[in-house]
Amino acid sequence: MMVFVSAAALVAALMAGSVDISFKSVVAFVAGKASGLDAAVLGELRLPRALAAFASGGLLALAGALMQLLLRNPLADPYVLGVSGGAAVGALSAIFLGWASWIVDTAAFAGALSAMLLVFGLARGDGSWTQSRLLLTGVIVAAGCGAVVVFMLVMTTDTRVQSMLFWLTGDVSGASRPWPALVILAAGLLVVLPFARDLNVLARGELSARALGVSTRGLRAGIYVLASLLTAVAVTLVGLVGFVGLIVPHLVRLAIGNDQRMLLPVAVFAGGTLMTLADTAARTMVAPTQLPVGVLTAMIGVPVFLFLLIRHPR
């Protein structure tokens, strides 16, 4: 069911825009029979952007579901370990220096990996990671990165402030190379699904999981690293988009339960669908002005999260 909803969202993203494109033209494009203006608009502009939005939403939703499971914290999201802060420092440094867009992407990914390695290195302590050490270290690293980001915003020229702000709130307009992110999304899901049964056991508590023969230490370390890498790829692709990795896993649990064998793939499609629809709205609501997609996800996520809090006060 979710696959068809995702396909419908992608078709809507291809049809909507300043140039009206019919459903028939979209079908012809998919079949490889489109030509002229429609083919150029779809192939060069809308399809890469729609796929980038879908990939980033799926990556964030999958990473958020894994982080909430491992930390056993409903407020956990993909950015909780400071990966987003490192990516922001890398990307904004490249924008500050006026470098090309591909260097901005490279710097964002390098910053995300550096922050991830720093958090895991500092949180190691006596040789093992704990939830509290990881969380506290992630918060501190994120705070430090936030201070660097504010410093760059204050020191930069007015012409580059808008680019920085768009990146900080999430912007899909510059994501012209979605295919690597889609491959990483599919690979991440294929890697984690064989461990879904162990994750179901781990959700009941670490002591219960150990008693049932699950190697919790290796499993937790591997999933932490995987979730961080998925987050790094998503942030590199579209910048900092809030609430997708926090809200989508909650909504999927309400709909289908907490079985990771179903929750993880459904969360990927749900997150991709949400991001695709949000980006479509961001570029059409007040056209020709385009909004950062993070504004739309926040407008959706805040009331949904408040509804969840009211419905489940405990």
Output the keywords.
314 residues, mainly alpha, ABC transporter involved in vitamin B12 uptake, BtuC, 14 helices
Describe the protein in words:
The chain has helices spanning 2-15, 23-30, 36-71, 83-96, 101-122, 131-155, 158-169, 179-192, 196-202, 206-211, 216-238, 244-256, 260-284, 293-311. By secondary structure, it is mainly α. It has a single domain, classed as ABC transporter involved in vitamin B12 uptake, BtuC (Orthogonal Bundle). Helix 3 packs parallel to helix 8 and helix 5 (101-122) packs antiparallel against helix 6. The longest helix is centred in the N-terminal third of the chain and has 36 residues, at 36-71. It is globular. The relative contact order is 0.17.
TL;DR of this structure?
This protein is an all-alpha fold. It has helices at residues 2-15, 23-30, 36-71, 83-96, 101-122, 131-155, 158-169, 179-192, 196-202, 206-211, 216-238, 244-256, 260-284, 293-311. Helix content is 76%, strand content 0%.
Count of beta strands: 0
**Separation, N- and C-terminal Cα atoms:** 31 Å
Computed CA radius of gyration, to the nearest angstrom:
20 Å
Largest sheet: none
Tally of individual domains: 1
Could you name the CATH homologous superfamily?
ABC transporter involved in vitamin B12 uptake, BtuC
Helix content: over 70%
Helices, by number, come to 14
SS-derived structural category: mainly alpha
Q: Which term fits the overall shape?
A: globular
- Into which percentage range does the β-strand content fall? under 5%
